Amino acid sequence: MIDAQNPRQHDGNQPQPNAGNPNILVDAEADDVPAAEPTRVTGRRALAYLGLCLVLIGLNLRTVFSSFSAVLPEVTSNAGLPGWAVVVLTTVPVTLLGVFAPLAPVLARRFGAERVLLGAMAVLTAGLLLRPAEIAGAGHLPALFAGTAACGAAIALCNVLLPGLVKRDFPHRLGLMGGLYTTAICASAALGAGFTYPVFSATGQWTSALWFWAAPAAVVLLLFLPVAVRQRHGQHTAVREGVNVWRSAVAWQVTIFMVLQAMMSFSVFAWLAPILRERGVDGGTAGLIVSVSIVLQMLGSLFAPALAARFRDQRVINSVVALMTGGGFALSIFGPLELVWVWTGLLGLGQGSLTAVALTMIMLRTRDGHTAAHLSGMMQGVGYGLGSTGTLLVGQLHQGTGSFTAAGLLFLAVGTLAAVFGYRAGRNRYIGG
Protein backbone atom coordinates (compact mmCIF):
# COMPACT_ATOMS: atom_id res chain seq x y z
CA MET A 1 0.00 0.00 0.00
CA ILE A 2 1.20 3.54 -0.78
CA ASP A 3 1.52 5.92 2.14
CA ALA A 4 -0.82 8.92 1.78
CA GLN A 5 1.94 11.18 3.08
CA ASN A 6 4.37 9.85 0.48
CA PRO A 7 2.50 9.50 -2.80
CA ARG A 8 5.65 8.39 -4.63
CA GLN A 9 6.36 5.49 -2.25
CA HIS A 10 7.35 2.39 -4.22
CA ASP A 11 4.96 -0.50 -4.17
CA GLY A 12 6.12 -4.08 -4.31
CA ASN A 13 5.40 -4.35 -8.03
CA GLN A 14 7.43 -1.35 -9.12
CA PRO A 15 9.56 -2.18 -12.15
CA GLN A 16 13.26 -1.98 -11.48
CA PRO A 17 15.79 -0.65 -13.96
CA ASN A 18 17.18 -3.52 -15.98
CA ALA A 19 17.91 -4.33 -19.56
CA GLY A 20 14.90 -6.60 -19.89
CA ASN A 21 12.29 -4.00 -19.08
CA PRO A 22 11.55 -1.82 -22.14
CA ASN A 23 9.09 0.34 -20.21
CA ILE A 24 11.85 2.07 -18.23
CA LEU A 25 12.05 5.67 -19.39
CA VAL A 26 15.52 7.12 -19.89
CA ASP A 27 16.48 9.87 -17.45
CA ALA A 28 18.38 12.77 -19.05
CA GLU A 29 19.68 13.71 -15.58
CA ALA A 30 21.13 10.26 -14.83
CA ASP A 31 24.66 11.68 -14.52
CA ASP A 32 23.74 14.46 -12.07
CA VAL A 33 25.53 14.54 -8.71
CA PRO A 34 23.77 14.85 -6.37
CA ALA A 35 20.81 13.15 -8.05
CA ALA A 36 18.00 15.47 -9.09
CA GLU A 37 15.17 15.49 -6.56
CA PRO A 38 11.58 14.66 -7.54
CA THR A 39 9.27 17.56 -8.30
CA ARG A 40 7.94 18.99 -5.03
CA VAL A 41 4.23 18.26 -4.65
CA THR A 42 1.98 18.00 -1.59
CA GLY A 43 -0.27 14.98 -1.64
CA ARG A 44 -1.95 12.81 -4.22
CA ARG A 45 -4.02 15.52 -5.87
CA ALA A 46 -0.96 17.64 -6.55
CA LEU A 47 0.86 14.59 -7.92
CA ALA A 48 -2.11 13.78 -10.17
CA TYR A 49 -2.09 17.42 -11.34
CA LEU A 50 1.61 17.12 -12.18
CA GLY A 51 0.93 13.93 -14.13
CA LEU A 52 -1.84 15.65 -16.06
CA CYS A 53 0.49 18.52 -16.95
CA LEU A 54 3.20 16.18 -18.22
CA VAL A 55 0.74 14.25 -20.39
CA LEU A 56 -0.72 17.50 -21.77
CA ILE A 57 2.78 18.70 -22.63
CA GLY A 58 3.25 15.49 -24.60
CA LEU A 59 -0.05 16.22 -26.37
CA ASN A 60 1.53 19.34 -27.89
CA LEU A 61 4.81 17.91 -29.19
CA ARG A 62 3.83 16.79 -32.71
CA THR A 63 1.08 19.17 -33.85
CA VAL A 64 3.80 21.45 -35.28
CA PHE A 65 4.72 18.83 -37.88
CA SER A 66 1.34 17.40 -38.87
CA SER A 67 -0.62 20.70 -38.84
CA PHE A 68 1.69 22.37 -41.36
CA SER A 69 1.56 19.44 -43.78
CA ALA A 70 -2.25 19.34 -43.58
CA VAL A 71 -2.53 22.79 -45.21
CA LEU A 72 0.77 22.82 -47.10
CA PRO A 73 -0.82 23.43 -50.54
CA GLU A 74 -2.79 26.40 -49.15
CA VAL A 75 0.25 27.87 -47.39
CA THR A 76 2.40 27.43 -50.50
CA SER A 77 -0.18 29.06 -52.77
CA ASN A 78 -1.32 31.90 -50.52
CA ALA A 79 2.07 32.85 -49.10
CA GLY A 80 3.83 32.38 -52.43
CA LEU A 81 6.44 30.03 -50.97
CA PRO A 82 9.22 28.96 -53.35
CA GLY A 83 10.02 25.25 -53.51
CA TRP A 84 13.23 25.61 -51.51
CA ALA A 85 11.34 27.29 -48.66
CA VAL A 86 8.89 24.38 -48.42
CA VAL A 87 11.81 21.95 -48.21
CA VAL A 88 13.50 24.03 -45.48
CA LEU A 89 10.29 24.44 -43.45
CA THR A 90 9.70 20.68 -43.41
CA THR A 91 13.35 19.87 -42.61
CA VAL A 92 14.47 22.51 -40.08
CA PRO A 93 12.30 21.52 -37.11
CA VAL A 94 13.45 17.88 -37.29
CA THR A 95 17.10 18.95 -37.63
CA LEU A 96 16.75 21.15 -34.55
CA LEU A 97 15.48 18.17 -32.55
CA GLY A 98 18.99 16.77 -32.89
CA VAL A 99 20.84 20.08 -32.50
CA PHE A 100 19.16 21.12 -29.24
CA ALA A 101 18.79 17.68 -27.63
CA PRO A 102 22.32 17.74 -26.05
CA LEU A 103 21.56 21.11 -24.42
CA ALA A 104 18.63 19.81 -22.39
CA PRO A 105 20.62 18.05 -19.60
CA VAL A 106 23.01 21.03 -19.39
CA LEU A 107 20.14 23.50 -18.95
CA ALA A 108 18.40 21.17 -16.49
CA ARG A 109 21.49 21.05 -14.26
CA ARG A 110 21.67 24.84 -14.31
CA PHE A 111 18.01 25.79 -13.89
CA GLY A 112 16.10 22.62 -13.00
CA ALA A 113 14.20 20.33 -15.37
CA GLU A 114 10.80 21.76 -14.46
CA ARG A 115 11.78 25.35 -15.23
CA VAL A 116 13.52 24.40 -18.47
CA LEU A 117 10.37 22.50 -19.46
CA LEU A 118 8.29 25.58 -18.63
CA GLY A 119 10.62 27.76 -20.71
CA ALA A 120 10.39 25.30 -23.60
CA MET A 121 6.58 25.45 -23.51
CA ALA A 122 6.77 29.26 -23.52
CA VAL A 123 9.04 29.15 -26.59
CA LEU A 124 6.76 26.60 -28.26
CA THR A 125 3.70 28.80 -27.67
CA ALA A 126 5.53 31.85 -28.99
CA GLY A 127 6.72 29.92 -32.04
CA LEU A 128 3.19 28.72 -32.82
CA LEU A 129 1.91 32.30 -32.54
CA LEU A 130 4.70 33.67 -34.70
CA ARG A 131 4.61 31.00 -37.40
CA PRO A 132 1.53 32.22 -39.37
CA ALA A 133 2.22 35.96 -38.83
CA GLU A 134 2.79 38.36 -41.71
CA ILE A 135 5.60 40.89 -41.43
CA ALA A 136 4.92 44.18 -43.19
CA GLY A 137 6.95 44.40 -46.38
CA ALA A 138 8.42 40.91 -45.96
CA GLY A 139 5.38 38.64 -46.18
CA HIS A 140 4.92 35.39 -44.29
CA LEU A 141 8.25 33.70 -44.99
CA PRO A 142 10.44 35.25 -42.22
CA ALA A 143 7.83 34.50 -39.54
CA LEU A 144 7.34 30.97 -40.86
CA PHE A 145 11.09 30.34 -40.61
CA ALA A 146 11.52 31.91 -37.17
CA GLY A 147 8.38 30.38 -35.67
CA THR A 148 9.13 26.91 -37.04
CA ALA A 149 12.73 27.05 -35.74
CA ALA A 150 11.54 28.13 -32.28
CA CYS A 151 9.08 25.24 -32.18
CA GLY A 152 11.75 22.72 -33.20
CA ALA A 153 14.15 23.91 -30.50
CA ALA A 154 11.44 23.83 -27.81
CA ILE A 155 10.27 20.35 -28.76
CA ALA A 156 13.86 19.08 -28.64
CA LEU A 157 14.15 20.11 -24.98
CA CYS A 158 10.79 18.57 -24.12
CA ASN A 159 11.66 15.32 -25.91
CA VAL A 160 14.73 14.87 -23.73
CA LEU A 161 13.43 16.04 -20.35
CA LEU A 162 9.88 14.67 -20.24
CA PRO A 163 10.74 10.94 -20.02
CA GLY A 164 13.10 11.59 -17.09
CA LEU A 165 10.46 13.58 -15.20
CA VAL A 166 7.90 10.83 -15.74
CA LYS A 167 10.38 8.24 -14.47
CA ARG A 168 11.55 10.36 -11.53
CA ASP A 169 8.15 11.53 -10.29
CA PHE A 170 6.04 8.40 -10.90
CA PRO A 171 8.15 5.37 -9.93
CA HIS A 172 5.03 3.73 -8.48
CA ARG A 173 2.99 4.22 -11.71
CA LEU A 174 5.72 3.96 -14.32
CA GLY A 175 3.84 1.68 -16.71
CA LEU A 176 0.68 3.80 -16.60
CA MET A 177 2.42 7.16 -16.93
CA GLY A 178 4.86 5.92 -19.56
CA GLY A 179 1.94 4.61 -21.61
CA LEU A 180 -0.05 7.83 -21.24
CA TYR A 181 2.97 9.94 -22.17
CA THR A 182 3.83 7.98 -25.32
CA THR A 183 0.17 7.77 -26.36
CA ALA A 184 -0.18 11.53 -25.92
CA ILE A 185 2.70 12.17 -28.32
CA CYS A 186 1.12 9.94 -30.99
CA ALA A 187 -2.26 11.56 -30.37
CA SER A 188 -0.64 14.95 -30.85
CA ALA A 189 0.34 14.07 -34.42
CA ALA A 190 -3.10 12.58 -35.10
CA LEU A 191 -4.88 15.70 -33.83
CA GLY A 192 -2.72 18.00 -35.94
CA ALA A 193 -3.39 15.91 -39.05
CA GLY A 194 -7.12 15.48 -38.43
CA PHE A 195 -8.27 18.91 -37.23
CA THR A 196 -6.12 21.46 -39.06
CA TYR A 197 -7.90 21.23 -42.42
CA PRO A 198 -11.40 21.40 -40.86
CA VAL A 199 -10.34 24.59 -39.06
CA PHE A 200 -9.12 25.94 -42.41
CA SER A 201 -12.43 24.99 -44.04
CA ALA A 202 -14.40 26.72 -41.29
CA THR A 203 -12.36 29.94 -41.31
CA GLY A 204 -11.10 30.06 -44.89
CA GLN A 205 -7.67 31.10 -43.60
CA TRP A 206 -4.60 28.87 -43.33
CA THR A 207 -3.21 31.32 -40.78
CA SER A 208 -6.16 30.64 -38.48
CA ALA A 209 -5.69 26.89 -38.92
CA LEU A 210 -2.07 27.17 -37.72
CA TRP A 211 -2.77 29.74 -34.99
CA PHE A 212 -5.34 27.33 -33.56
CA TRP A 213 -2.56 25.11 -32.18
CA ALA A 214 -1.08 27.90 -30.09
CA ALA A 215 -4.18 27.80 -27.86
CA PRO A 216 -3.64 24.32 -26.30
CA ALA A 217 0.07 25.06 -25.87
CA ALA A 218 -0.74 28.30 -24.03
CA VAL A 219 -3.25 26.51 -21.78
CA VAL A 220 -0.66 23.89 -20.80
CA LEU A 221 1.91 26.64 -20.20
CA LEU A 222 -0.45 28.31 -17.72
CA LEU A 223 -1.33 25.00 -16.04
CA PHE A 224 2.33 24.05 -15.57
CA LEU A 225 3.45 27.53 -14.47
CA PRO A 226 2.62 27.19 -10.72
CA VAL A 227 4.26 23.74 -10.57
CA ALA A 228 7.51 24.91 -12.16
CA VAL A 229 8.01 28.27 -10.42
CA ARG A 230 7.81 26.87 -6.89
CA GLN A 231 10.55 24.29 -7.47
CA ARG A 232 13.87 24.73 -5.67
CA HIS A 233 16.98 23.77 -7.56
CA GLY A 234 20.32 22.93 -6.00
CA GLN A 235 23.74 22.82 -7.57
CA HIS A 236 24.51 19.75 -9.67
CA THR A 237 27.53 18.52 -11.57
CA ALA A 238 27.76 15.88 -14.26
CA VAL A 239 29.77 12.74 -13.57
CA ARG A 240 30.00 10.41 -16.54
CA GLU A 241 29.57 6.73 -15.79
CA GLY A 242 29.12 3.73 -18.02
CA VAL A 243 30.91 2.83 -21.22
CA ASN A 244 31.71 5.26 -24.04
CA VAL A 245 28.81 4.61 -26.41
CA TRP A 246 30.47 6.57 -29.22
CA ARG A 247 33.11 3.83 -29.50
CA SER A 248 30.66 0.94 -29.48
CA ALA A 249 29.73 -0.87 -32.72
CA VAL A 250 26.47 -2.00 -31.12
CA ALA A 251 25.58 1.59 -30.21
CA TRP A 252 26.22 2.73 -33.78
CA GLN A 253 24.05 -0.06 -35.18
CA VAL A 254 21.19 0.95 -32.88
CA THR A 255 21.73 4.63 -33.72
CA ILE A 256 21.71 4.08 -37.49
CA PHE A 257 18.53 2.02 -37.02
CA MET A 258 17.11 5.09 -35.26
CA VAL A 259 18.30 7.41 -38.07
CA LEU A 260 16.51 5.36 -40.72
CA GLN A 261 13.40 5.13 -38.55
CA ALA A 262 13.39 8.91 -38.08
CA MET A 263 13.82 9.49 -41.82
CA MET A 264 10.55 7.66 -42.45
CA SER A 265 8.69 8.82 -39.35
CA PHE A 266 9.09 12.56 -39.85
CA SER A 267 8.56 12.24 -43.59
CA VAL A 268 5.15 10.77 -42.80
CA PHE A 269 4.30 13.80 -40.65
CA ALA A 270 5.62 16.26 -43.24
CA TRP A 271 4.63 14.72 -46.56
CA LEU A 272 1.91 12.04 -46.33
CA ALA A 273 -0.98 14.54 -46.47
CA PRO A 274 0.53 16.45 -49.46
CA ILE A 275 1.19 13.09 -51.17
CA LEU A 276 -2.43 12.05 -50.80
CA ARG A 277 -3.71 15.43 -51.94
CA GLU A 278 -1.52 15.33 -55.04
CA ARG A 279 -3.05 11.93 -55.81
CA GLY A 280 -6.50 13.55 -55.84
CA VAL A 281 -7.68 13.00 -52.26
CA ASP A 282 -9.47 16.08 -50.88
CA GLY A 283 -7.93 17.94 -47.95
CA GLY A 284 -10.39 16.78 -45.30
CA THR A 285 -10.17 13.12 -46.30
CA ALA A 286 -6.37 13.28 -46.55
CA GLY A 287 -6.20 14.66 -43.02
CA LEU A 288 -8.51 11.90 -41.79
CA ILE A 289 -6.44 9.19 -43.50
CA VAL A 290 -3.22 10.51 -41.95
CA SER A 291 -4.91 10.79 -38.56
CA VAL A 292 -6.17 7.18 -38.68
CA SER A 293 -2.73 6.01 -39.79
CA ILE A 294 -1.21 7.73 -36.76
CA VAL A 295 -3.83 6.18 -34.46
CA LEU A 296 -2.69 2.81 -35.79
CA GLN A 297 0.84 3.89 -34.87
CA MET A 298 -0.38 4.00 -31.27
CA LEU A 299 -1.47 0.35 -31.48
CA GLY A 300 1.90 -0.66 -32.87
CA SER A 301 3.75 1.30 -30.20
CA LEU A 302 1.71 -0.35 -27.45
CA PHE A 303 2.30 -3.97 -28.45
CA ALA A 304 5.67 -4.02 -30.23
CA PRO A 305 7.96 -3.33 -27.21
CA ALA A 306 6.40 -6.09 -25.09
CA LEU A 307 6.61 -8.50 -28.02
CA ALA A 308 10.24 -7.56 -28.69
CA ALA A 309 11.22 -8.10 -25.06
CA ARG A 310 9.78 -11.64 -25.07
CA PHE A 311 12.40 -12.89 -27.52
CA ARG A 312 16.05 -13.64 -26.96
CA ASP A 313 16.89 -11.23 -29.78
CA GLN A 314 14.90 -8.78 -31.86
CA ARG A 315 16.29 -9.43 -35.35
CA VAL A 316 13.04 -10.67 -36.86
CA ILE A 317 10.67 -8.08 -35.40
CA ASN A 318 13.05 -5.21 -36.23
CA SER A 319 13.34 -6.33 -39.85
CA VAL A 320 9.64 -7.01 -40.33
CA VAL A 321 8.39 -3.66 -39.00
CA ALA A 322 11.05 -1.79 -41.01
CA LEU A 323 9.89 -3.47 -44.23
CA MET A 324 6.23 -2.82 -43.33
CA THR A 325 7.00 0.87 -42.91
CA GLY A 326 9.02 1.32 -46.08
CA GLY A 327 6.58 -0.76 -48.12
CA GLY A 328 3.52 0.98 -46.69
CA PHE A 329 4.98 4.40 -47.43
CA ALA A 330 5.92 3.44 -51.00
CA LEU A 331 2.49 1.92 -51.69
CA SER A 332 0.81 5.06 -50.32
CA ILE A 333 2.63 6.90 -53.11
CA PHE A 334 2.19 4.61 -56.11
CA GLY A 335 -0.11 1.76 -55.04
CA PRO A 336 -3.73 1.65 -56.33
CA LEU A 337 -5.58 4.63 -54.86
CA GLU A 338 -8.70 2.59 -54.07
CA LEU A 339 -6.61 0.66 -51.54
CA VAL A 340 -5.05 3.76 -49.96
CA TRP A 341 -6.61 2.98 -46.56
CA VAL A 342 -4.86 -0.40 -46.64
CA TRP A 343 -1.48 1.10 -47.57
CA THR A 344 -1.65 3.86 -44.94
CA GLY A 345 -2.88 1.35 -42.36
CA LEU A 346 0.12 -0.87 -43.07
CA LEU A 347 2.33 2.22 -42.83
CA GLY A 348 0.78 3.24 -39.50
CA LEU A 349 1.14 -0.16 -37.83
CA GLY A 350 4.66 -0.54 -39.19
CA GLN A 351 5.80 2.96 -38.23
CA GLY A 352 4.41 2.82 -34.69
CA SER A 353 6.03 -0.56 -34.12
CA LEU A 354 9.31 0.56 -35.71
CA THR A 355 9.59 3.68 -33.56
CA ALA A 356 8.78 1.71 -30.42
CA VAL A 357 11.26 -1.11 -31.04
CA ALA A 358 13.99 1.38 -31.98
CA LEU A 359 13.52 3.11 -28.61
CA THR A 360 13.25 -0.24 -26.85
CA MET A 361 16.75 -1.06 -28.08
CA ILE A 362 18.02 1.58 -25.63
CA MET A 363 17.10 -0.64 -22.69
CA LEU A 364 17.68 -4.02 -24.32
CA ARG A 365 21.24 -3.22 -25.44
CA THR A 366 22.44 -1.60 -22.18
CA ARG A 367 23.14 -2.91 -18.67
CA ASP A 368 22.64 0.24 -16.56
CA GLY A 369 20.81 3.56 -16.49
CA HIS A 370 23.89 5.69 -17.15
CA THR A 371 24.79 3.84 -20.33
CA ALA A 372 21.14 3.94 -21.40
CA ALA A 373 21.07 7.72 -20.91
CA HIS A 374 24.22 8.17 -23.00
CA LEU A 375 22.86 5.91 -25.76
CA SER A 376 19.58 7.84 -25.71
CA GLY A 377 21.46 11.12 -26.11
CA MET A 378 23.49 9.69 -28.98
CA MET A 379 20.37 8.34 -30.68
CA GLN A 380 18.44 11.59 -30.35
CA GLY A 381 21.30 13.83 -31.43
CA VAL A 382 22.42 11.75 -34.40
CA GLY A 383 19.03 10.16 -35.08
CA TYR A 384 17.03 13.36 -35.37
CA GLY A 385 19.88 15.34 -36.90
CA LEU A 386 20.44 12.89 -39.76
CA GLY A 387 16.83 11.71 -39.75
CA SER A 388 15.79 15.13 -41.03
CA THR A 389 17.44 14.24 -44.34
CA GLY A 390 14.35 12.14 -45.07
CA THR A 391 12.06 15.17 -45.30
CA LEU A 392 14.79 17.04 -47.18
CA LEU A 393 15.20 14.29 -49.79
CA VAL A 394 11.45 13.96 -50.34
CA GLY A 395 11.18 17.69 -50.98
CA GLN A 396 14.19 17.73 -53.28
CA LEU A 397 12.99 14.72 -55.26
CA HIS A 398 9.54 16.23 -55.63
CA GLN A 399 11.02 19.51 -56.82
CA GLY A 400 13.35 17.79 -59.26
CA THR A 401 10.90 15.27 -60.76
CA GLY A 402 7.52 16.97 -60.28
CA SER A 403 6.04 13.93 -58.53
CA PHE A 404 6.43 11.80 -55.40
CA THR A 405 7.18 8.56 -57.29
CA ALA A 406 10.93 8.87 -56.75
CA ALA A 407 10.26 9.37 -53.03
CA GLY A 408 8.40 6.04 -53.02
CA LEU A 409 11.49 4.32 -54.40
CA LEU A 410 13.58 6.16 -51.81
CA PHE A 411 11.53 4.74 -48.96
CA LEU A 412 11.68 1.24 -50.34
CA ALA A 413 15.46 1.63 -50.10
CA VAL A 414 15.33 3.26 -46.64
CA GLY A 415 12.99 0.56 -45.35
CA THR A 416 15.34 -2.13 -46.64
CA LEU A 417 18.36 -0.48 -45.02
CA ALA A 418 16.40 -0.13 -41.77
CA ALA A 419 15.68 -3.87 -41.92
CA VAL A 420 19.40 -4.60 -42.35
CA PHE A 421 20.51 -2.39 -39.45
CA GLY A 422 17.54 -3.49 -37.36
CA TYR A 423 18.64 -7.09 -37.86
CA ARG A 424 22.16 -6.24 -36.71
CA ALA A 425 20.96 -4.09 -33.78
CA GLY A 426 18.56 -6.85 -32.75
CA ARG A 427 21.28 -9.40 -31.96
CA ASN A 428 21.46 -10.37 -28.29
CA ARG A 429 24.47 -8.27 -27.31
CA TYR A 430 25.18 -5.45 -24.87
CA ILE A 431 27.09 -2.21 -25.33
CA GLY A 432 30.42 -2.69 -23.60
CA GLY A 433 30.41 -6.47 -24.00
TrEMBL record:
<feature type="region of interest" description="Disordered">
    <location>
        <begin position="1"/>
        <end position="25"/>
    </location>
</feature>
<keyword id="KW-1133">Transmembrane helix</keyword>
<dbReference type="InterPro" id="IPR036259">
    <property type="entry name" value="MFS_trans_sf"/>
</dbReference>
<feature type="transmembrane region" description="Helical">
    <location>
        <begin position="47"/>
        <end position="72"/>
    </location>
</feature>
<feature type="transmembrane region" description="Helical">
    <location>
        <begin position="316"/>
        <end position="334"/>
    </location>
</feature>
<dbReference type="InterPro" id="IPR052524">
    <property type="entry name" value="MFS_Cyanate_Porter"/>
</dbReference>
<keyword id="KW-0812">Transmembrane</keyword>
<feature type="transmembrane region" description="Helical">
    <location>
        <begin position="209"/>
        <end position="229"/>
    </location>
</feature>
<feature type="transmembrane region" description="Helical">
    <location>
        <begin position="84"/>
        <end position="104"/>
    </location>
</feature>
<feature type="transmembrane region" description="Helical">
    <location>
        <begin position="340"/>
        <end position="364"/>
    </location>
</feature>
<feature type="transmembrane region" description="Helical">
    <location>
        <begin position="285"/>
        <end position="304"/>
    </location>
</feature>
<feature type="transmembrane region" description="Helical">
    <location>
        <begin position="403"/>
        <end position="423"/>
    </location>
</feature>
<protein>
    <submittedName>
        <fullName>Putative major facilitator superfamily transporter</fullName>
    </submittedName>
</protein>
<keyword id="KW-0472">Membrane</keyword>
<feature type="transmembrane region" description="Helical">
    <location>
        <begin position="139"/>
        <end position="162"/>
    </location>
</feature>
<feature type="compositionally biased region" description="Low complexity">
    <location>
        <begin position="12"/>
        <end position="25"/>
    </location>
</feature>
<feature type="transmembrane region" description="Helical">
    <location>
        <begin position="174"/>
        <end position="197"/>
    </location>
</feature>
<dbReference type="Pfam" id="PF07690">
    <property type="entry name" value="MFS_1"/>
</dbReference>
<feature type="transmembrane region" description="Helical">
    <location>
        <begin position="376"/>
        <end position="397"/>
    </location>
</feature>
<feature type="transmembrane region" description="Helical">
    <location>
        <begin position="116"/>
        <end position="133"/>
    </location>
</feature>
<feature type="transmembrane region" description="Helical">
    <location>
        <begin position="250"/>
        <end position="273"/>
    </location>
</feature>
<dbReference type="GO" id="GO:0022857">
    <property type="term" value="F:transmembrane transporter activity"/>
</dbReference>
<dbReference type="InterPro" id="IPR011701">
    <property type="entry name" value="MFS"/>
</dbReference>
